[in-house]
Amino acid sequence: MTLHSEAAFERFTKALGESEGSGSWFPVRQEDINSFADVTHDHQFIHVDPEAAAKLSPWGVPIAHGFLTLSLLTHLMASIPQDPARMEGVVMGINYGFDKVRFVSPVKVDSSIRATSVISHVELKGDAIQVTRDVTIEIEGEEKPALVAQWLTRVIYS
């Protein structure tokens, strides 16, 4: 355990249950969906074929892959301002996984999404802090979110 990790643990613990805020809106374009389809080899028509989606899907337009939405969490979370004091002495952050992920609503092509976050659990692990965040990805103009997840990260301190 380091002085940085101890001090950060106290700061994270004080923030338990509080919203960290909302990030910036990010547009999900057909080019992003197509690139993700190429990388993952998931070319289902509901993602990559606008004409077939217009005729056959319940949404009438292509939708983003659920895993594309999930993979954007790192980018979306980066636009939520963090308390700089919690980051003093940080060596690196590690994606530790998820306790829960639910794809609530599809993200239609050309929709914009953003993340909101609440710190729900903090645990001191030697020179690291494991932080669990309840993350929601909102869809601009939609009532239901695209995704809800419990995301675990580890922050390693010097």
From TrEMBL:
Coiled-coil ranges from the UniProt annotation: none
Domain MaoC-like: from-to ranges: 13-135
Gene3D superfamilies: Hotdog Thioesterase
Protein name from the UniProt record: Unannotated protein
Classification of source organism: unclassified sequences, metagenomes, ecological metagenomes
